[in-house]
Protein 1
Amino acid sequence: MTAKVYKAKDFMSKYVLSVPADCTVQELIHLFVSHPIDAIPVTDGDNKLLGIISEGDLLYKKVRPYVPQYVDVLGASLYYCGYGRYEKSFRKLLATRADEIMTKDVRCVTPETDMDTITSLMIDEHLKTVPVVDKNNRLAGIVTRHDILGVIAATDARDLIDGVGESVKNAMDSKENKENKEK
């Protein structure tokens, strides 16, 4: 018996809380506090995915700015860890709207992506939430770690029930064979 291959469409959350690009940071914080979510997709009027905002993105607002360390070499400033790292921090620190704080390079999957691929992506990229998009980049759903754990738990329970059923069947067959031999 082969194991069922679960695809994103089988277990994703289809009803996704998303926000427009002009949503304020205060509104975002309220949404995170009032809903049990780890991330919120940012979409346009056609439901196309523009970016995603995680709880971590909003935490930048409360972190005191880190002043980059640099060396002045012949009038040029060389940053120890690269300027891009600091620019991203400052951009998020100063953000007031979703489109200013969101992550634009979003790791996504399609409804046909199998669960093993999604799980590997989440582990490798340290993601808690992965948007599911169709071929037109429209938001079709979202997969969380909780969704995957739910499939694993249901599969384990089904395997346990199937195993018990198989054991009972084997015991019944054994008893029937023994009775037939005695006749």
Note: The two ends are 35 Å apart (CA to CA).
Protein 2
Amino acid sequence: MAKKPKKQQSAGTPATVALTAAGVDFTVHAYDHDPSHPSYGEEAAEAMGVSPDRVFKTLVADVDGALTVAVVPVAGSLDLKALASAAGGKRAAMADPTLAERTTGYVRGGISPLGQRKKLPTVLDASASAHPTICVSAGRRGLEVELSPADLARLTEAVQAPIARP
């Protein structure tokens, strides 16, 4: 049974604070997170009734020794080789989850590309531009923010490149 999403305008996470400060139009979608669900992103898409192509997950990778954020649709997976290339590196691997949490200030499953404790280089999958709005984590499990891909790219200073695979 799908959970009914709750809409609200302000949630007070570092991500929503950053969006408000930037004067960006956004909508916050809250839902009851189920800790037993196998995928945070798929759970968010189901709970909001949004196509998994429009819900993007935030992954932290290590590109040649530097932490880098990858934002890709939950419907696919991250192509590490493509990420390394887009970030100007040679090799990429998923970052240690504890290091990702400590560096971003968010917990796994709630890492947002916005409002991170330490601003990291960001790569946004090129497919985002096919949608008028996309959803990304608002900074905690059970909370998503919907905004235009152009605003997300501008605020995170993201490089846009094809880094996802189906």
Note: Confidence is low (pLDDT under 50) at residues 1-11.
